[in-house]
Amino acid sequence: MEWPEYIIMAAQHSKGNARHWFRYLRKDINKCGVLFTIDDVEKLSGNEMLTPFQRVSLRAAFLEGSPTRRHIIGLNEKASQSKIKIVKAKYANSNN
Q1: CA nearest to 55, candidates 8, 96, 9, 13
Q2: Which terminus of the chain is less hemmed in, N or C, by CB atoms within 10 Å?
Q3: Residue 75 contacts residue 28 (beta carbons within 8 Å)
Q4: For residue 9, what are the domain limits?
Q5: Is residue 29 within 8 Å of 73, Cβ to Cβ?
Q6: How many distinct structural domains can be found in the chain?
Q7: How far from chain centre, in Å, is Cα 64?
Q8: pLDDT per residue as tens digits for the range 58-87
């Protein structure tokens, strides 16, 4: 399966679910320049099978330094202990 076909399949599978769409994009961010080029991204971002949200986020995901790209890359980062403690404290207090 070629990269554009994969992205169209991913778009169809994740319609209405941004989290799934971003996971598909995260898998491909580091492959840019190896499996496809920015020109491929631009061509694909005009495809009618993608929703407007998917077109915009596709372009932003491969734009170096964009907030969308930083968000997508950070999706599976390990949580720090301080963040875990804050969440635990928040939910411990809400159960009372």
Answers
A1: 8
A2: C
A3: no
A4: 3-94
A5: yes
A6: 1
A7: 14
A8: 999 999 899 999 989 888 777 778 878 887
